[in-house]
Write a structure and sequence with these properties.
Shape: globular
Helix content: over 70%
CATH topology: Four Helix Bundle (Hemerythrin (Met), subunit A)
Structural class: mainly alpha
CATH class: Mainly Alpha
Distance between the termini: 59 Å
Largest sheet: 2 strands, antiparallel
Number of helices: 8
Strand order of the largest sheet: 1-2
Order of helices and strands: HHHHEHHEHH
Number of domains: 1
CATH superfamily: CDP-alcohol phosphotransferase transmembrane (TM) domain
Radius of gyration: 20 Å
C-alpha cells in the first residue's frame, strides 16, 4: 500500500470526468491560437467562448459527482492560463498588434501576465478568501471582452487598422483589471435548487433568447457590464465597512 508522509493512503489515479472537461477547455484555447495563426480570427473568438463554457462545467461536474481533487484544481489553473491568459493575448497580437511592434507586444504581454498573476493569487488565497467575491476580474471574463470585441469587429466589418489602438487599450485594461483589488461577484451564493419568482424565469429566458440571436454582441456586452461591476461593488462594500466602523466607534 502506498502511503504519504502523513500515513494516509496515496491515490495514484485521477478523476476522469471533470478532467476531460478541463482538457477540452484547454484544447479550445489551443485551437484559438492555431486558428489565429491561420488567419481564422472568427473561429478563434468562438473557440475562446467554447473554452469558457467548458471551464464553467468542469468544476460543477466535479462537485455534482463528488470528484474534486487537488490535481483537478491545479490542472484547471494551468488550463485557464492557456485558454484565458496566453490564447487571448496571442490572438489579439496576431489580429491587431503585429504592426505596432514592441507596443503591441507589451499590450499582449500585460494581458498574459495579468492572467498568470491573478491565477497565482487566487490559488494562494482560496482557503481564506470570501467565497462570495473574486478579487480581480476573473480571467474568463477578461478573455470574453477581447474575444467578443474581435467577433463583433469581424461580424460588422470593422477595419482592424482603424480600431487597433482601442483594442490595445482594452487589452492592457483587461490585464490590469485581473490583478486589481476590485471585488467581483462569484455568484456562488446562488442556489440552482432554490425557487425563484416567475418574473425571474422570464428574464432569464429573454437573456438566453438575446444571446442566441446576437451572440457576439450580447456576450461582449455581458462581459463588459461584469467588468464594470467590480468598481461599483467595491465602492458599495467600502462604504458599508466605513459605516460599520463609524458605528462601532
Amino acid at each position: 500500500m502506498n502511503l504519504n508522509q502523513s500515513g494516509k493512503k496515496r491515490h495514484r489515479g485521477i478523476y476522469l470526468l471533470p478532467n476531460l472537461f478541463t482538457t477540452a477547455a484547454m484544447f479550445a484555447g489551443f485551437y484559438a491560437i492555431t486558428s489565429a495563426i491561420d488567419g481564422r480570427f472568427e473561429t478563434s473568438a468562438i473557440s475562446l467562448f467554447i473554452a469558457m463554457i467548458l471551464d464553467g462545467l468542469d468544476g460543477r461536474v466535479a462537485r455534482l459527482t463528488n470528484t474534486q481533487s487537488e490535481f483537478g484544481v491545479e490542472y484547471d489553473s494551468l488550463s485557464d492560463m492557456v485558454s484565458f491568459g496566453i490564447a487571448p493575448a496571442l490572438v489579439m497580437y496576431l489580429w491587431a498588434f503585429e504592426s505596432l511592434g514592441r507596443v503591441g507586444l507589451f499590450a499582449a504581454f500585460v494581458h498574459a501576465a495579468g492572467g498568470a498573476l491573478r491565477l497565482a493569487r487566487f490559488n494562494t488565497q482560496v482557503e481564506v478568501a470570501d467565497k462570495r467575491y473574486f478579487q480581480g476580474l476573473p480571467s474568463p471574463a477578461a478573455a470574453a471582452i477581447l474575444a467578443g470585441g474581435l467577433w463583433i469587429s469581424i461580424e460588422y466589418g470593422y477595419d482592424v487598422e482603424s480600431i487597433k489602438y482601442i483594442v490595445l487599450v482594452t487589452t492592457i485594461t483587461t490585464g490590469l483589471l485581473m490583478v486589481s483589488n476590485f471585488r467581483y461577484s462569484s455568484f456562488k451564493e446562488i442556489d440552482p435548487k432554490r425557487k425563484v419568482p416567475f418574473v425571474m424565469a422570464i428574464a432569464i429566458m429573454l437573456v438566453i433568447g438575446f444571446v442566441m440571436a446576437q451572440p457576439q454582441t450580447m456576450l461582449f456586452l455581458l462581459a463588459v457590464v461584469y467588468a464594470l461591476s467590480g468598481p461599483v461593488i467595491t465602492l458599495v462594500l467600502r462604504r458599508k465597512w466605513q459605516g460599520r466602523n463609524q458605528i462601532n466607534h
